[in-house]
Amino acid sequence: MTVPLALYALVSRLAEPLAPLVLRRRAAAGREDPDRIDERLGRAGRSRPEGPLVWLHGVSVGETLSLLALVEGLGTRRPDIALLVTSGTRTSADLLARRLPARVIHQYVPVDGPRAVRRFLDHWRPDLGILAESELWPNLVLGARRRGTRLALVSARITEGTARTWRRVPATARRLLEAFERILPQDRASAARLSGLGAACGRELNLKRAGAPLPFDPAELERLRGVTAGRPVILAASTHPGEEALVTQAAEGLGALVILAPRHPERGAEIAGSLGAPRRALGQSPGPADPAWIADTLGEMGLFFRLADLVVMGGSFPGGIGGHNPLEPARLGAPVLTGPDIANAADVYGEMFDEACALPARDAADLRRKLAGLLADPVLRRRMREAALAYAGRQGQALEDALDDLAPLLPPPEAAR
């Protein structure tokens, strides 16, 4: 073991007795599920199914939701394998409870202490672990590998800042990356950085490009179409502070209903206090004179994307957020507008701009001009819808290629044993 890894092992072992106290305090602050703290300590809340098991992990909402495409693909190709999905946040757990197939188990990932990791691995005994994006917890990764669990890092993403940190401990980085038999980088830049740290990278895979259309309640969609009849609908999706007022003001006088879907739904009361808009979380529907409606619920974005005539993607105007994935609305044929800050999905946005299924807006004034122009031109909106559907459809092939790459790591079917 390299010196930094030995030091990490020592520090994590000494700190682990404090984990229950820290977790209880986080639970009191609403940041942990008080009923499932044991899972964070490696004590399973479910029995392990018989037979082979594949474990998939993503730390938070974006990563875990991107894994749903892999869950569906693995379930279709190998229905004989049990699937376990772990995540680290309450929000991701709430969403997965709504989105995972009934046969798939969800657990919270254990803290990266040696005892918690040992309990987790002793109970679940995964044959294959598939980790998303950048989850390189040393005790968890190396502990799984020592037990013979095969590992893959998919949709792997590493920023220049993170790579610079890892370059200070090159032996540690190499040891962790060598634990993975497959590393599928998210983009060319991540592939170059990972290769520079000693990783053997395969083909590119951005799971956030490969997902299925978000689910929705058809009866509720019809009801809301009746409520909004006669008014165009502009959805401000995954907004951050300041963006709700910006989009609402940009749409003023256009005769549209603006649906405000904050990135963090718990901000609903705060937004209502500022804008005086009704809230879905309180069971309120928009009235004919309401300029805005706050969609502060979880797991309903598929409903709102289908209801919208235009979608403004949030996290792109105030600066410092970097934008959010525009493929979710594109899969449903929604024309997309975005502010200038799109660093988190620059490649996807660049391709969508080139194919005229998304438009950039420099600022609030430019956003207003583009909203007005699109609402006045149904033919252009239809062309953008068609272009969005065509673009999103082409992204699905990458998932099939990734499943082919992962197939040799899967435990053999029972008949082949």
Describe the 3D structure.
- The structure is a single chain.
- The protein is α/β, with parallel strands linked by helices and 417 residues long.
- It has helices at 3-15, 19-28, 37-40, 61-77, 90-99, 114-124, 138-146, 160-167, 170-177, 188-196, 218-227, 243-250, 268-275, 301-307, 327-330, 346-354, 364-375, 378-395, 397-406, and strands at residues 53-57, 82-87, 105-108, 128-132, 150-156, 182-185, 233-239, 257-262, 292-294, 310-313, 336-338, 358-360.
- The strands form 2 sheets. It has a 6-stranded parallel beta sheet, with helices on both faces.
- Helix 16 links the parallel strand 11 (336-338) and strand 12.
- Helix 12 crosses helix 17.
- The longest helix is centred in the last third of the chain and has 18 residues, at 378-395.
- The two termini are 34 Å apart.
